[in-house]
């Protein structure tokens, strides 16, 4: 496919995060921009393909019809539980190094990540975030690359790289140096793992479950130290 269009698809989520978080300095507005992109871009592509009468790649049609396997569900739940436990344990053990709590509370207030709508923001992170991120990166983008005959391993690498790119914008202000740079690496590794799950099971169910548990671990840290 056209490299410029592919670059836009890779960089679009990062641009939305930068506009909302660094530009408007508002988590709710960031959510609108970011999740709007993750939802509307694949949906618009699907509508255009339908209008053009394009047929979906038969390999992915078969994938969608393939039943969810027990191993996919168990791997999703098991890996997610490991991620949750690792996140909470790391925070408990190392939060004096990782977090400047007074500064971070002020930053979250500035980002409007507090107040009466807080529970709605949490629900978005626990439900909408893993669903839309996995559908976009391990579904829509991974399929585009494999349709363009990119090798599966490289497709997983590229989607994980750009998936972790916009996390830099949220991780850098939150954590203390130099850990804010180091902590991008687990995000990249998680992207590789979820991409591998998608290829192995031809399903997003396991990666969505695993991702949701990981996000729950992040929210546990929030309620432990920042609420």
Fold and architecture overview:
The protein has 227 residues and is mainly alpha-helical. 84% of the residues lie in helices and 0% in strands. The protein is built from ten helices and no strands. It has helices at residues 3-23, 27-52, 58-65, 70-98, 101-110, 118-147, 152-174, 179-182, 184-201, 205-225. Helix 4 runs parallel beside helix 10 (205-225) and helix 9 (184-201) runs antiparallel to helix 10 (205-225). The chain is globular, with a radius of gyration of 18 Å. Mean pLDDT is 90; it is low at 55-62.
Distance between the terminal alpha carbons, to the nearest Å?
A: 46 Å
Q: Count the beta strands.
A: 0
Strand content: under 5%
Q: State mean pLDDT (0 to 100 scale).
A: 90
What structural class do helix, strand and pairing data support?
A: mainly alpha
H/E topology pattern: HHHHHHHHHH
Query: Sheet with the most strands?
Result: none
Query: What is the helix fraction of residues, given as a range?
Result: over 70%
Overall body shape: globular
């Amino acid at each position: 496919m056209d490299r410029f269009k592919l670059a836009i698809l890779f960089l679009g989520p990062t641009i939305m995060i930068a506009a909302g978080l660094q530009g408007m300095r508002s988590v709710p507005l960031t959510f609108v921009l970011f999740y709007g992109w993750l939802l509307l871009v694949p949906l618009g592509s699907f509508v255009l393909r339908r209008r053009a009468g394009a047929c979906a790649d038969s390999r992915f049609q078969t994938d969608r019809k393939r039943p969810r396997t027990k191993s996919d569900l168990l791997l999703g739940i098991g890996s997610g539980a490991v991620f949750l436990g690792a996140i909470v344990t790391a925070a408990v053990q190392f939060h004096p190094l990782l977090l400047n709590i007074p500064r971070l509370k002020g930053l979250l207030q500035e980002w409007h990540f507090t107040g009466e709508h807080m529970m709605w923001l949490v629900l978005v992170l626990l439900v909408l975030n893993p669903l839309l991120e996995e559908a976009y990166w391990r579904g829509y983008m991974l399929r585009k690359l494999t349709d363009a005959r990119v090798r599966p391993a490289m497709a997983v690498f590229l989607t994980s790289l750009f998936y972790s790119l916009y996390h830099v914008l949220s991780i850098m202000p939150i954590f203390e140096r130099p850990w804010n740079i180091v902590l991008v690496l687990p995000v990249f590794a998680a992207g590789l793992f979820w991409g591998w799950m998608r290829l192995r099971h031809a399903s997003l169910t396991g990666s969505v479950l695993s991702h949701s548990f990981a996000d729950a671990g992040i929210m546990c840290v929030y309620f432990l130290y920042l609420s």
